[in-house]
Amino acid sequence: MSTTTPDTRSDASAVLVGEHGGRLPAPIPGERPTSGTSFGRLVHVELRKMLDTRAGRWLLIALGVVIAGALTILFVQQGGDHPFGTYLQATTMPMAILLPVVGIMAVTSEWSQRTALVTFTLEARRTRVAWAKVVAALLVGVAAVVFSFALGAAAHAAAIGLRGAEGDWTFTWTALLGAAGYVLLGLLQGLGFGMLLRNTPAAIVLYYVLPTGWSILGSLWSQAEKAGQWLDMNRTMEPLFSGSLTGEQWAQLATSVGVWVALPLTVGMWWITRAEVK
């Protein structure tokens, strides 16, 4: 037997009357969804979380100011006579330093502001949400790398045309790979730290303090110095910018990336699928 009976009023907005006399709202008109949220829409939402927020916009503004200042200094010094690699470094280094904060806040802001409950209510499959964050971070990183390459090339061309600098476009593919990897891996590392800790101050402090702490420990302890050759990402990525890597250097780079990027991401994604939303 049905538990509700329709009200006999002729009003179009009639409500349903329950078995105990309570009134229930009428069903919302229109077709009901037959499928879950698409992965593309999840990625789009995560992109907005990264960039379309007050913190994200101010971070991008600060990043633009730093890059503009670095390029201005290069443009003025020595008549702008610097190789393309120097201009590219002036655009990629600030991005590699500041963009990981975007990845961190893309995760931690949901947990600190308690909007993760809304996210996981609309999409209960948390693994898909975590992968959407990874894809969104990669898209932001790729766009940043392309923009930095274009901006560095434009600044170098402007120095040649306006300041009479000698053009030096020589640059190896490994150096380009190093510049791109420095930005992308840093962004993914920040995302992994955010998933692990889910606390903005803790994740940011840990991300920036660990390299400094490792360098200090290596200067005081010889064993840490040897381990740093395999685990310190700042050191293992240096050969990329020099133009060539040996087999051992590739292995050192893969080891450091596995420890500081792949492992935090893997454990962080696993933890997000099981962490209680409070």
UniProtKB/TrEMBL annotation:
<feature type="transmembrane region" description="Helical">
    <location>
        <begin position="58"/>
        <end position="76"/>
    </location>
</feature>
<feature type="transmembrane region" description="Helical">
    <location>
        <begin position="129"/>
        <end position="151"/>
    </location>
</feature>
<feature type="transmembrane region" description="Helical">
    <location>
        <begin position="204"/>
        <end position="224"/>
    </location>
</feature>
<feature type="transmembrane region" description="Helical">
    <location>
        <begin position="171"/>
        <end position="197"/>
    </location>
</feature>
<feature type="transmembrane region" description="Helical">
    <location>
        <begin position="250"/>
        <end position="272"/>
    </location>
</feature>
<feature type="transmembrane region" description="Helical">
    <location>
        <begin position="88"/>
        <end position="108"/>
    </location>
</feature>
<keyword id="KW-0472">Membrane</keyword>
<keyword id="KW-1133">Transmembrane helix</keyword>
<protein>
    <submittedName>
        <fullName>ABC transporter permease</fullName>
    </submittedName>
</protein>
<keyword id="KW-0812">Transmembrane</keyword>
